[in-house]
Design a protein that fits this description.
Oligomer: single chain
Radius of gyration: 20 Å
Helix content: 55-70%
Order of helices and strands: HEHHEEHH
Distance between the termini: 36 Å
Number of domains: 2
């Protein structure tokens, strides 16, 4: 089961730490991220119901990154947070290595770091 707010839920729960957050607070933060002056079709009730169902379903699975700490309160499992930190730590290094190994514009063209930022 996938949820369109999965990435937002992970970011919010990583920010709050081990104690976790109640569903209504998670939904409020997601609502505030997605509501805009020009967007009027985002409904807080739908977000709250979607997040609640998704976290309840996911917390029942062993391989899920979510953990139910108390009734209606969810957190990220500690091992998932460590795993995510290691993944995020390794990703930029591999991307930098790939970018430096490929010449930009040919072998005879000098490399300009300022121009690489916009490619």
């Amino acid at each position: 089961m996938n949820n369109i707010y999965h990435r937002d839920i992970i970011e919010i729960l990583l920010e709050c730490g081990r104690e976790g957050l109640r569903i209504k607070n998670i939904a409020r933060r997601i609502y505030n991220r997605h509501v805009d002056f020009f967007v009027a079709d985002v409904d807080y009730g739908e977000i709250r119901d979607s997040v609640g169902r998704y976290l309840w379903e996911q917390s029942r699975h062993i391989e899920s990154p979510f953990l139910s700490t108390r009734y209606g309160t969810y957190a990220i499992k500690a091992d998932f947070a460590i795993q995510l930190d290691l993944f995020l730590d390794m990703t930029p290094r591999s991307e930098v290595h790939k970018a430096t190994s490929q010449p930009i514009g040919g072998e005879h063209c000098p490399r300009h770091i300022q121009l690489e930022l916009f490619t």
